[in-house]
TrEMBL record:
TM spans (from-to): 521-541
Keywords associated with the record: Membrane, Signal, Transmembrane, Transmembrane helix
Acidic residues biased stretches: 605-649
Higher taxonomy: Eukaryota, Sar, Stramenopiles, Ochrophyta, Bacillariophyta
Protein name: Uncharacterized protein
Extent of Polar residues compositional bias: 554-564
Length: 664
């Protein structure tokens, strides 16, 4: 029997990174060739989703559009950004059309709809919801084509620059279920919406993470316990939009200290690393919960969506380097590993993929395999490991910005706001481990308009909780300084922290002979016993600390048995369970296909699976260029921001609180 790990190692060999490869070119070139291809995402980097995930992957396009609007730093940009946040733009586009004649037969949900788009091409979608006899309003979800051009072809909703090429024409005929034709009319700019919004990732948190069956989900509970509100992420984001003080139980910050220049960073990252981060974890939790319930297809779909939300549409097809693109965890992890010397399989390099992403994607693949083989316990362990790994880049980012501010002569609020945001993103986890350490982290990094940050205190508070968070010092690394080719003197990795002094010193000692002999020499020598003993003491203490971390704790987070017996949230609201909107019927529908998957290894299925997909997939031969070129502008800017700014010309931001009341 093949091991799951063997399977996942082979997947990249089988599929490569090519999204435009053989798999799609051999698709039937028959009469349907003018149809836009359906939105099957064939691979998310090395991961092969078994269900449709284009809409989940498109959340990053909303974040990206919000970032662009916020970057205008004016009220119009702010209003536009809020519209995208509230109404969506790229994820799950839906048309609501009116039929000229009332229906004579009812139409059920999920029927294939074919129509003509604004640009004259044929487009495909599905009905949402059942429509009864005599009714005239039909809702159609478009197949979201993000694979070719990186954006949706019908993006209206809250989009300040609507893209309508791929929207249904104002009037015409649609074919439903391949036989019946219906005449319809609607208004393109008024009746195209988005059924997924960034807002709802947080505002639906209670029903989806707290009071569902198998809830409350453990990670979410820590955040709820700390902030005291289910929709803490949305509240924080809304306060940031308005530049006002937060009103939660803990972690409150006065965002009035920041001008739009600082809030721009805070808002876009709050969406990514408070809201989407938690929802990604939620999808993993839901996948395992569905596995426990025996709903394996559903489980795999949630798992697939978690991978999509971790990666984002802009990260899906990238090679080894996602650090210069994207707004989600994939990007965050690859960026931080360069700064902390934690790239590569052994977490000790500054190039290539991050250790975190390599590990996470191994667990994504292994977890999917487990779900497909009804191994819920194993999938639960994959999930726990992914969650653990997903905290590492946030800890790194917190350290990074704390360090930047601590060394700033003049406070740059852009760095301050990011330090605040990243601190918020992990404070609940730190608090769950150690309230005193969380208090230190909070005091140092809460919003303020000074560079008065004690980096050592931040570092110590975080390091105190690594063992509780089940994080190794080597996974966090240290802040690397290219100019000296070593870690910054005050930002060594923990455990190795003394190496630059005592560690190397001791190595030298031991290389020269027994410690005893050397000790004699030292005590009588020029260096002086006190220095040596102090160094030895520090080194021993660090080392013990490290060993303790490596020994203990690992089992606790991977043991989920108690967790799954605890179903406390179920029935709390009278059995209330909001059916998540993210659930679409997985495309892998036929029981035959499931049977294949269940009885074969993942690798064995790959080719078969693709051939099956190809037969129902439409190749778009006349790929239309839909314009919108928004890829490059903000990324290079961000990279500059990430530079260590000791010598940077300082930005004199507007820190006056009064300047920050926005009309919203
Ligand atoms: C649909 O409308 C027709 C004409 O008004 C009516 O006779 C019929 O009962 C209606 N059917 C339903 C199911 O409402
Ligand atoms: C839609 O179908 C009707 C009747 O089947 C036809 O008269 C009409 O021209 C069609 N409209 C378009 C835009 O093709
Ligand atoms: C569609 O809606 C827009 C916005 O409300 C409006 O300006 C436009 O006139 C409408 N177009 C049609 C054809 O009704
Ligand atoms: C990844 O991209 C960034 C930004 O373009 C660059 O600085 C870095 O060197 C790249 N890393 C690798 C391994 O190519």
């Amino acid at each position: 029997m093949k091991s799951p790990l063997l399977g996942l190692l082979l997947i990249p060999v089988c599929t490569g990174h090519s999204n435009h490869g053989e798999g799609t070119t051999m698709i039937n070139n028959d009469k349907k060739s003018t149809r836009r291809r359906r939105n099957l995402v064939e691979s998310i980097r090395t991961y092969i989703p078994r269900s449709e995930v284009a809409d989940a992957a498109a959340v990053d396009l909303d974040v990206h559009a919000i970032k662009n609007e916020l970057g205008k730093l004016d009220d119009e940009g702010w209003t536009n950004a809020m519209a995208i946040y509230h109404q969506g733009a790229f994820s799950k586009p839906i048309a609501t059309v009116t039929l000229i004649k009332p229906l004579q037969d009812s139409i059920s949900s999920g029927k294939t709809v074919v129509g003509i788009a604004m640009d004259g091409s044929e487009i495909v979608g599905e009905t949402i919801g059942n429509v009864g006899v005599n009714e005239t309003i039909i809702r159609i979800v478009y197949d979201n084509d993000i694979t070719e051009t990186g954006h949706t072809h019908c993006s209206v909703g809250g989009n300040p620059s609507p893209i309508v090429d791929g929207c249904l024409q104002f009037e015409g005929n649609i074919t439903i279920d391949d036989d019946q034709s219906f005449q319809y009319t609607y208004n393109v700019s008024e009746s195209n919406h988005n059924d997924h919004t960034l807002l709802e990732l947080s505002t639906h948190a209670k029903s989806r993470m707290w009071s569902c069956s198998h809830c409350p989900f453990r990670t979410f509970s820590k955040y709820y316990n700390y902030f005291g509100e289910f929709d803490y992420a949305d509240r924080i984001i809304q306060d940031a939009f308005r530049g006002q003080e937060m009103e939660l139980d803990n972690g409150n910050m006065d965002l009035g200290y920041y001008s739009k220049y600082g809030l721009k960073e805070f808002i876009s990252k709050a969406i990514s690393y408070l809201s989407i981060w938690m929802y990604t974890i939620r999808q993993l939790e839901q996948a395992v919960a569905d596995c426990e319930k025996g709903e394996f297809l559903q489980a795999v779909h949630f798992w697939d969506e978690a991978v999509a939300m971790y990666t984002g549409s802009r990260g899906m097809n990238e090679g080894d380097n996602s650090s210069n693109n994207g707004d989600l965890m994939l990007h965050q992890a690859d960026l931080r590993c360069q700064e902390f010397n934690t790239c590569g399989a052994s977490s000790d390099s500054r190039t290539g993929q991050s250790y975190v992403n390599l590990q996470v994607f191994a667990h994504f693949a292994d977890g999917q395999y487990s779900l497909l083989h009804n191994r819920c316990e194993q999938a639960a362990q994959n999930k726990q490991e992914i969650i653990r790994l997903m905290t590492i880049p946030l800890v790194q980012a917190t350290l990074r910005y704390a360090h930047i501010i601590a060394h700033e002569t003049y406070f740059n609020e852009k760095h301050g706001s990011q330090a605040s945001l990243y601190a918020l993103s992990i404070l609940p986890l730190v608090h769950d481990c150690s309230p005193p350490d969380a208090a230190v982290l909070y005091q140092e990094l809460k919003s303020k308009n000074t560079a008065d940050v004690n980096f050592g205190a931040v570092q110590q508070a975080l390091e105190n909780t690594y063992s509780c968070l089940n994080i190794q010092c080597s996974e966090i690394g240290g802040i690397w300084d290219e100019t000296i080719g070593d870690y910054k003197y005050d930002a060594y990795p923990c455990g190795a922290a003394a190496q630059g002094t005592a560690g190397n010193f001791l190595d030298a000692v031991l290389a020269q002979g027994t410690a005893g002999n050397f000790l004699d020499a030292v005590l009588g020598g020029a260096i002086g016993g006190l220095v040596f003993l102090t160094a030895l003491g520090v080194w021993t203490w660090r080392r013990n600390k490290l060993l303790k971390k490596e020994d203990g704790e690992y089992s606790s987070s991977t043991s989920t048995s108690n967790y799954w017996q605890d179903d406390a949230g179920d029935g709390k609201e009278g059995g209330f369970r909001d059916e998540p909107k993210y659930v679409d019927t997985p495309k892998m529908e036929t029981s035959q296909k499931l049977q294949d998957v269940l009885t074969h290894s993942v690798v064995g299925d790959q080719e078969e699976e693709h051939e099956d997909e190809n037969s129902t997939n439409w190749q778009d031969e006349e790929e239309v260029d839909f314009g919108e070129e928004s890829e490059s502008e903000s990324s290079s800017e961000e990279d500059n921001d990430e530079e260590f700014p000791e010598d940077e010309a300082t930005y004199s931001g507007n820190h006056k609180r009064s300047s920050n009341s926005y009309e919203v």
